[in-house]
Amino acid sequence: MLSVDEQMHIIKSGVSQIVPEAELRKKLERKEPLNVKLGVDPTAPDLHLGHAVPLRKMRQLQDLGHHVTLIIGNGTALIGDPSGRNSTRPPLTSAQIAENAQTYIEQAFKVLDESKTDLVYNADWLLKMNLEDLLGLTSNFTVARILERDDFSNRYKNQQSISLHEFLYPTLQAYDSVKIKADIEMGGNDQLFNLLAGRDLMSAMDMEPQVCITMPLLEGTDGVRKMSKSYKNYVALTDEPSDMFGKIMSIPDDMIVRYARLASSMSVEEADKIEAGLKDDSLHPNKVKRALARNIVAIYHDEQAAIDAEANFDALFKEHQIPDDVEEFAFDLSGDEVYLAKIISDAKMASSIGEARRLIDGGGVRIDGEAVEKGVYNVEREAIENKVLQVGKRKYKRIVAL
Amino acid sequence: MLSVDEQMHIIKSGVSQIVPEAELRKKLERKEPLNVKLGVDPTAPDLHLGHAVPLRKMRQLQDLGHHVTLIIGNGTALIGDPSGRNSTRPPLTSAQIAENAQTYIEQAFKVLDESKTDLVYNADWLLKMNLEDLLGLTSNFTVARILERDDFSNRYKNQQSISLHEFLYPTLQAYDSVKIKADIEMGGNDQLFNLLAGRDLMSAMDMEPQVCITMPLLEGTDGVRKMSKSYKNYVALTDEPSDMFGKIMSIPDDMIVRYARLASSMSVEEADKIEAGLKDDSLHPNKVKRALARNIVAIYHDEQAAIDAEANFDALFKEHQIPDDVEEFAFDLSGDEVYLAKIISDAKMASSIGEARRLIDGGGVRIDGEAVEKGVYNVEREAIENKVLQVGKRKYKRIVAL
After folding, report:
1. Alpha-helical runs (H) found in A282-394
2. Closest Cα to residue A253, out of A275, A230, A229?
3. What is the C-alpha to C-alpha distance for residues A213 and A195, in angstroms, rounded to an integer?
4. What is the pLDDT of residues B353-378, one digit of tens each?
5. pLDDT bucket at A86, cuts 50 / 70 / 90
6. Do the Cβ atoms of B343 and B360 come closer than 8 Å?
7. Which among A19, B19, B113, B309 is least surrounded, fewest beta carbons within 10 Å?
8. Which of A121, A126, A143, A171 to mutate to test binding with chain B, by most B CBs within 10 Å of its CB?
9. How many angstroms separate the CA atoms of B234 and B245, rounded?
10. Residues of chain A numbered 290-349 and touching chain B (CB < 8 Å)
């Protein structure tokens, strides 16, 4: 095992908070593998790079010799984590939960080292609790403490209803920490309250409390808002290699280091070098971005797919002289067909729909380098989504769904 | 069965609130026995006349042909009803709960008609609930609604901690109403919130909601503060006949009608007559009080005990020319012996302890009519508690423990 200082340098890379850092050092000083908890509620089937951020950090911990317990929250999913929400989650059926869990596990093991991971399901202990167990558990928490949570206190202040069963969520997921005897619990920034509840409960039950490590929310490909399906700025873990590569190439340069630290399998040493190199201009952003895109594609597919994706990217972009870092333009792509002329007009690539139609008819409009035929003002969704729309010689937009 | 109007006249006698009255009339119009719920948490072993107020009302309902379901809250007792409390109740062991429940039942059946009562234990269904059941149940309530409860909102405002398990109390006791399909739930004034929670839950579960009937808190023998062990102004249901008779005789005259309505087995018609008779002076308070005292002793002992208690009372009071309605004086009776001279002085029956000792030595001090011997300034607790202390010819106090 590396020294405590070396481990701390790696662990701290990219994290938001370690609460408390001194306790983490103490645990590391024991020179024994720590048990790192990640609890996941399989409420959504598809994961994106943002979801994978804590998984990446856990993989680093595994590479340092530690152990991961991945808790599939098929028990807590009966409530649905209210973190950061302003309304009660609709309940999932157990079939949905099981299906989502399966997808999640497959995707998680693209990042985690399976040989150093225990996969457990919290329904196994939570659904066996009876009223007496639950009263004992909840008696360790006060109403005021739970109501302090940002999302709950906001909802309470704004008179948005909080269903009483949501109040039980933090206590149940805290109990998971007791059950697996966690040394560390990992989570997103918005999970800090839940993580601290686990810490409090372990103390109340005379156990050595877990250390909480939170990871920041990763920005989406726009580099501005958090990565989210609803903002259409996400890279799904199941994206095809070419899509994934193209999306990473489209992130702003100032996101390169962040993605390297939070979303890639690059070592902390590499990330440190990239950060320094970009700062003193000894490294070119485009080159680094290509390495980053290859790295990420290789995690979720494989090395060959990464090489092929880059080749495809070059064939398409270089051949058609499309710049590497085309801006995205979001448009409503629902409905039977998409009105291409309106996209061109709305994206300010033409002054009006009329002009857009004339440009199409004149052969000046291309999709991924291929000219659109005369009179084709409407196209299928597949023909345009995630493709580069080119008008004239210098106007390019990557069209994404709104 | 009596007509709806006749029943309503009897039911309304002495009650605080019927929520809502129109629904109660509708239920009565069906001319079928209604199911009246009383939930009791066996948290205290000894009952007094104040506790018996809802029981008396239920007995009236039984006499009208209705049915009672008495729920022993051996499940909810694991929490302890937080109603009206400003701190979390200390948990009871199941042995304590079982013992208290036994005492409660024995005492309750001195009032209730056993042939028209179902005795059930809510541990039978509550302790069988698992997490999923509990989440389903609690999802019918909002945090804001529970926090509206006076005691909870006061504790929250005053930063007195509310343990999360206390928050579950109203939902669990509400579930009891669903389980037994209550038509009416009976409770003290301080129980209205809990009773309404039962009503809400039944509506949420598409059942005909129960009507809530609350009873006022009975004043103690001082006629001022609510009857309570802590105020030493209570008549225990297990008090000896003579003590019980004496205590009732000591209540202020303006409490006679209230005790008749809330604590006796007198019919509503009788209580109405007493109220009218005392108003127009056609009845003498002392005579009515005697009838009331006999009635109450007969409920908790028997007719003969009531007659004997009155005879004892007369023997003692008439013989020693002690007035019937001696005021109480409360004094700290703890410790090995009680300093009688100090009681006399503190009760303003002498101007100083020195004078009190001189009065004792002169033979001018009596306890229940018997002169205290010269030089006896200290007495055993038993020799003075609940006894009438007389100084000179006209000063009397009944001494009770502080």
Report:
1. 285-300, 303-319, 340-346, 353-361
2. A275
3. 8
4. 999 999 999 888 999 888 899 988 99
5. low
6. no
7. B113
8. A143
9. 12
10. none
